[in-house]
Amino acid sequence: MSGFVNYNNISIRLCVLGDGGVGKTSVTIQFVSNNFLNCYDPTIEDLYRKQYVIDDQVYMLDILDTAGQDELTPIRNHWIRSCESFILVYSITSRSSFDQIQFYRDLIVSLLDRDNVPIMMIGNKSDLEYERIVTYQEGKDLANRLGMSFMEVSAKNRSIIEEVFNETVRNSKKIGQKSKKGKSIGNKKSIIKKFNQKVNNTFNSIFRMI
Ligand SMILES: Nc1nc2c(ncn2[C@@H]2O[C@H](COP(=O)(O)OP(=O)(O)OP(=O)(O)O)[C@@H](O)[C@H]2O)c(=O)[nH]1
Ligand SMILES: [Mg+2]
């Protein structure tokens, strides 16, 4: 840490995916506004924006909170293509939500057509230890096998939520730097601008479809 903050925003488009009811919205809202709602209101699609400083750098995070309900799967591919970084969520109380993780991961890799996509897998609802069905070790093993980062969290208790987003941003930056290696800073700015234009177009077409 240098102590000097770089205020030139770096934008990151983040997509939160996982089965219905695992806590995607709860994790996102805890991170964005330090709130937890006990009620369940299935998401259609929500976009959250948060400015965020980590490692002396200001980031603008656009977080796309997606629907886990089956009726909305046709639009899922658009969501995935419009983002560059991903958080895959399952609930430690639901075996079926854990079993779906590989499906989401494979879908991301095939739609983005590259395998160095920053993906964080999280096991949510860690406060419900007495209802646990998926062990920590199972989560760790799957994440290792698929090359993803892994944490268990509780949106309810705000446990490890900040860490998830820190790690996601750091991984995005690391992978971004690797793929842009050798390009000049001036080049980097125009690439980001072009990328943002592309993503905005995709987002607009998603909103038109809903
Ligand atoms: N105990 C506990 N309950 C949680 C936690 N996270 C979410 N919940 C509850 O689980 C239910 C579903 O949470 P949501 O965040 O709406 O789940 P979702 O994944 O966004 O669901 P969809 O939008 O339908 O895909 C709600 O009743 C939440 O209060 C958690 O960490 N612990
Ligand atoms: Mg939701």
Automatic annotation (TrEMBL):
Gene3D superfamilies: P-loop containing nucleotide triphosphate hydrolases. One of its GO terms (biological process) is signal transduction. The keyword Nucleotide-binding applies. Coiled coil: none annotated. GO terms for molecular function: GTP binding; GTPase activity. Keywords: GTP-binding, Nucleotide-binding. GO terms for cellular component: membrane. The keyword GTP-binding applies. Transmembrane segments: none annotated. This is Uncharacterized protein. The lineage of its organism: Eukaryota, Amoebozoa, Evosea, Eumycetozoa, Dictyostelia.
